[in-house]
Structures are given as C-alpha cells and as structure tokens.
Specification:
By secondary structure, the protein is α+β, with helices and mostly antiparallel strands. It has helices at residues 3-11, 44-63, 148-180, and strands spanning 18-19, 25-30, 67-77, 85-96, 100-111, 119-130, 143-144. It has a single domain (3-180), classed as Roll (Thiol Ester Dehydrase, Chain A), CATH 3.10.129. The chain has a five-stranded antiparallel β-sheet with strand order 2-4-5-6-3. Strands 1-7 form a two-stranded parallel ribbon. The longest helix is centred in the last third of the chain and has 33 residues, at 148-180.
Length: 185
C-alpha cells in the first residue's frame, strides 16, 4: 500500500479501501449519423456524455452508491471521431478524498469493421461527490493504487485537486474584493 493510500485509509478507518481495479470499467458505443455535428464528425457533446456516463459508473461502483458529477476538467479532444467508429471509454478512480473522488477517462476509437488498433481520441478528469438518499455528501472508501501507473495517477490527481482548490479560492477572493470596491453589482 502506498503512503498516500495508507494516510487516506487512516482518515477513514471504518471504510476499507478499494483497489483501483475494483471499479475500473469500459463503455463502448458505435457512433451513428445521429451523433454528428455540422462538420460531419461526432459532436463533442456526445463524447462528453459517454465520458460522464463511464465516469459515473466507476464513481458509483467505487463509492458503493450514488455519486454525482461535481466538475469536469481537462477534457481534451485529440482526434476527430467519425460515423462508424467504435468508441471505447475507459475510466478508473485516480484519487479519493473524504466524500469526493477523481475519475480519469481515456477515449479510444477504432473503425467498427476493421481490425486496426484503437487510437486515443480524447481524455478527461472528472470529480464526483458521493451522495446519500437525501443528496447529502457521504464518505467514500479510499482508493488503493495497485501499480506504478496507478500511483502516478494518484499523485497527479492530488496536484489537480490542489490547483482546482487554489483557482476556486482566487476567484472567490477576487469577487469579494471587487464587491467591496463596488465594482460588481
């Protein structure tokens, strides 16, 4: 067990940790004409929906119940997706906090009728909050990285979390300052 996972587990002694492989999943979908934008390629929103669906399944599986999307960041579209492509959305929990978790997602595409290797066409990071039946936050099990790659993802997720929180604080401080100066109404 990594130092980070051990520390997270000690913060939640009543919830046993879960390995990254326990909730990892792949969602696959063939893209059709109904999925296209005005340029004839698959609409980014369609890909984003698949990303959110796969990440939501992983978050719910890891947390053992409902989880809602809190944020999506770093959605990158690397290559266009075309009608007829078989899209695979691979997701796993990278990091967990007390009630939230970061899910990393890779999007791959391959021609449905060819045996060529899949190409990475996108990636994203989403933050999910586990909620109870009343929509209130609930605790999540710590994630236990299993491989060096999982450990790297865990550490990178901590950096992204630090940046998200710093950005949020800076925006709140700026808004408060501008309001105190009477610049925003």
């Amino acid at each position: 067990m990594t130092d980070q996972a051990a520390a997270a587990e000690s913060d939640t002694p009543d919830i046993p940790g879960r390995p990254t492989s326990a909730s990892r999943t792949t969602l696959s979908h063939i893209m059709t004409q109904a999925d296209t934008n005005l340029l004839g390629t698959v609409h980014g929103g369609v890909i984003m929906k698949l990303v959110d669906d796969a990440a939501g399944a992983v978050a719910g599986r890891h947390s053992g119940g409902p989880a809602v999307t809190a944020s999506m960041d770093e959605m990158a579209f690397l290559e266009p997706v075309r009608v007829g492509d078989l899209v695979h959305v691979k997701a796993q929990v990278n990091w967990t906090g007390r009630t939230s978790m970061e899910v990393g997602v890779r999007v791959l595409a391959e021609r449905w009728n060819e045996s060529t290797p899949a190409t990475q066409v996108g990636s994203a990071y989403l933050v999910f909050a586990a909620v109870d039946a009343d929509g209130k936050p609930r605790r999540v099990p710590p994630v236990l990285p299993e491989t060096e790659k999982d450990e790297r993802r865990y550490q990178e997720a901590q950096i992204r979390r630090t940046h998200r929180l710093a950005r949020r604080r800076a925006i709140v401080e700026l808004r408060e300052k501008r309001a105190a100066e009477g610049l925003d109404d």
